[in-house]
Write a structure and sequence with these properties.
Blueprint lengths: L29 E5 L29 H12 L6 H17 L1 H12 L3 H27 L2 E2 L4 H4 L12 E8 L2 E7 L6 H14 L3 E4 L6 H9 L10 E3 L4 H8 L5 E5 L2 H13 L4 E4 L5 E4 L7 H7 L11 E4 L1 H19 L15 H10 L4 E4 L3 E2 L4 E2 L2 E4 L16 E6 L3 H9 L6 E5 L3 H10 L4 E4 L20 E2 L5 H6 L1 E8 L5 H4 L8 H10 L9
Parallel strand pairs: 1-4, 1-5, 1-7, 4-7, 5-6, 7-8, 9-10, 9-16, 10-15, 14-15, 16-17
Antiparallel strand pairs: 2-3, 3-19, 8-18, 11-14, 12-13
């Protein structure tokens, strides 16, 4: 289905200069970004508009007008009323409902993703986030009262005054955001773009969205169809490759949200540091999966090969004893056959690698260790069979980079202590998994390690719970999102103390001179005693 035929299409918006906007607009108060491809900070071509191929005068900034438009909308307070925020969220929900088939077809072209997998991992989770935000928007937007001490609680009985100071956290939109501006091209394009967008819209921000140029079909739908459902004075989509994205990052934003690799995350953070822009970085990494001798080994397979292993939360490698490896291999073999049949290549439930570049990278990793299961590949189809590697050394390439593919290395350890030591001497992962029938083993792994998220005897179920945040630690990122955590991420929690007028006599205690009795009184009023005086 062509996006040109989408019901409810609107005319191309006009720029502030009177001409048609570049079909790849770019900026706004907040930026949402999600790409693991290279993002240079300089060297972009001056005068070339993102994605349109038109060349203008030297030093022309293709993003300036769009950024200015979004900033003017935010400064005018357009995004702040709850009614406006709800309207935008409802529009996003309609986009998901109206265009599920269109997005599903795009995912099939990009990744050959099955309809079931797309529904569960993409549409359902996004729609759940929208529904939750709409249901709780007014509650989330309420200012949060703060505890006061005796000094801040004194008030006046003058009829024109409020009875006391008001101390609260005032929830204020961050402003011009670039949330989710790069979702990882290898995993969940709608999910990793739209879930952060829910929080940014609910928090009352203007948004610049930068989908990955590698998921070309999904990118096209997001760029051409999504803006029809949102207020384009407060929302823009920017398209382009590394050069355009690097040029966009040279602009000042109020917040940047990025999903991608640690390597590109450093580039984004360097660009943000130039303007002291706060960031959320969801970066992934090598997620360990400890399989204890006392467990059911079949659970591991599904979570590794979902989306052909192209998810940032998938188990990246298994740690187990040699004895468990002997039990685990046949269990993995039978589970793979049950999921994908004896010929996984013909299975409609096994996706393909996103492009030739990543296929070649993964094919190179097949030479590490020894192939125990799978190992077949076909570049013409971008197919790599679900694969298990054994006899893998810690120094081999497959253990030095995030795999993002259907390859599962097994590394042998002799004990739980050795597994914990192995994990702790490496970078902190986004997720850590532990499988054991012993709660003591699971709890010890939880207590003695660090990761963004922990899963005990379970894989991706936590992703279905908006009450639990997703976010990394250390090399796997900073910040968190999902549910109200997304709303908080894109809100500035502004400390606010409102004092009534007419308190000058009471305020005399603040001013010099400071005799002993005044010092004792101030120390007492600032102390931890409960306050009853208004």
């Amino acid at each position: 289905m062509s996006v040109k035929g989408v019901k409810g299409a609107v005319k191309q918006p006009r720029s502030t200069l009177g001409g048609p906007l570049c079909p790849r607009p770019c900026a706004g108060p907040a930026v949402l970004c999600g790409d693991r491809s290279c993002l240079p900070l300089s060297g972009s071509q001056p005068g070339k508009e993102a994605g349109c191929g038109r060349t203008g005068p030297a030093r022309m900034d293709p993003f300036r007008d769009t950024l200015q438009r979004l900033r003017e909308s935010f400064s005018a307070g357009r995004t702040r009323p709850a009614e406006f925020r709800a309207t935008q969220l409802e529009g996003l929900g309609r986009f998901l409902r109206d265009n599920q088939q269109l997005l599903q077809e795009a995912l099939a072209r990009d990744l050959r993703k099955s309809a079931f997998e797309a529904d569960i991992s993409e549409f359902l989770m996004c729609q759940t986030e929208v529904t939750l935000a709409l249901k709780n928007l007014h509650t989330w937007m309420k200012d949060e009262p703060a505890t006061k001490n005796l000094w801040s609680s004194t008030g006046s009985h003058h009829p024109s005054c409020t009875p006391a100071h008001a101390a609260e956290l005032y929830l204020h939109p961050e402003g011009a955001l670039r949330p989710g501006a790069h979702h990882h091209p290898l995993e969940l394009p709608p999910n990793l773009t739209l879930v952060p967008l829910v929080g940014a819209l609910a928090a009352g921000n203007c948004v610049v969205l930068k989908p990955s140029e590698i998921s070309t079909s999904t990118e096209k739908v997001l760029a051409e169809v999504l803006p029809q459902y949102l207020d384009q004075s407060c929302f823009a989509v920017m398209l382009g490759g590394p050069e355009e994205t690097g040029q966009l990052l040279e602009h000042k934003f109020d917040y940047i949200f990025f999903t991608g690799s640690p390597r590109v995350g450093r580039i984004v953070m360097t660009a943000a540091a130039k303007h002291l822009t706060p960031v959320t970085l969801e970066l992934g990494g090598k997620n360990p999966c400890y399989v204890d001798d006392n467990c059911d080994p079949e659970t591991v397979a599904f979570f590794r090969y979902l989306n052909t292993g192209q998810t940032c939360v998938a188990p990246d490698y298994v740690l187990c004893s040699p004895e468990m490896q002997e039990r685990l291999l046949p269990a993995l073999q039978s589970t793979i056959a049950r999921f994908f049949g004896e010929d996984p290549r013909s299975s409609p439930n096994l996706s393909r690698i996103i492009n030739d570049k990543h296929f070649q990278r993964l094919q190179g990793l097949l030479g590490c260790g020894r192939v125990a299961i799978g190992g077949q590949s076909d570049q013409s189809d971008r197919y790599i069979a679900p694969t298990v590697l054994v006899d893998v050394q810690e120094t081999e390439p497959v253990m030095q980079e995030e795999i993002f593919g259907p390859i599962l290395p097994i590394v042998n350890v002799r004990s739980l202590d050795e597994a914990i030591d192995f994990i702790n001497r490496r970078e902190k992962p986004l997720v850590l998994y532990a499988f054991s029938k012993s709660s003591e083993v699971v709890n010890e792994m939880l207590d003695r390690t660090s990761s963004g998220t922990f899963g005990g005897n379970d894989g991706f179920t936590y992703l279905t719970l908006p009450s639990l945040p997703l976010g990394g630690v250390g090399n796997s990122g900073m910040g968190r999102y999902h549910g109200k955590f997304s709303f908080n991420t894109f809100s500035h929690h502004r400390a606010c103390l409102l004092s009534p007028p007419g308190l000058e006599k009471l305020n005399d205690i603040h001013y010099p001179p400071y005799p002993d009795w005044k010092q004792r009184l101030v120390r007492w009023s600032l102390g931890p005693q409960s306050c009853t005086l208004l």
